[in-house]
Amino acid sequence: xxxxxxxxxxxxxxxxxxxxxxxxxxxxxxxxxxxxxxxxxxxxxxxxxxxxxxxxxxxxxxxxxxxxxxxxxxxxxxxxxxxxxxxxxxxxxxxxxxxxxxxxxxxxxxxxxxxxxxxxxxxxxxxxxxxxxxxxxxxxxxxxxxxxxxxxxxxxxxxxxxxxx
Length: 165
Ligand SMILES: [Zn+2]
What we know:
This protein is α+β, with helices and mostly antiparallel strands. The chain has a domain at 70-162. The chain is built from five helices and nine strands; from the N terminus they run H-E-E-E-E-H-E-H-H-E-E-H-E-E. The protein has helices at residues 3-14, 63-70, 82-86, 88-105, 128-142, and strands at 30-32, 38-40, 43-45, 58-60, 75-80, 111-117, 120-125, 145-150, 157-162. The radius of gyration is 17 Å and the shape is elongated. The protein binds zinc ion. Zinc ion binds at residues 32, 34-35, 37, 61-62, 64-65. Zinc ion (ZN) binds at residues 32, 34-35, 37, 61-62, 64-65.
């Protein structure tokens, strides 16, 4: 991790980010009725530890599924530049693989949509950590230029990545 990445990471963790979609109180263990993620000890996870008592599990909808239903992304990554047009396949592969890695450990970090818009590729995510990680992955793999804009009081992150030849 270089200095720039570290400063971005510090900034991310210092930002008071209260995800409005995470304010729903869940007591005990719960399972998302849409995706099957489990709520356990304050976290949403794909793995329900052994010895977990699930018989009193509540059925709820997890914050990621609710964001997808409402089409309310937390992160937006916008890719532009001529490099994108020539290497779209590789770039999309990197984005999808990065999502898999992030999502395996963080059940609420998901890609919502990939949309082509006037020469740009717009990727929306259910969590700001995934948007941040995608920005760093693109920069590491393809260089180019990234900038990160955090919402002041909302749980929001916009990342722009661009590369021209
Ligand atoms: Zn869910």
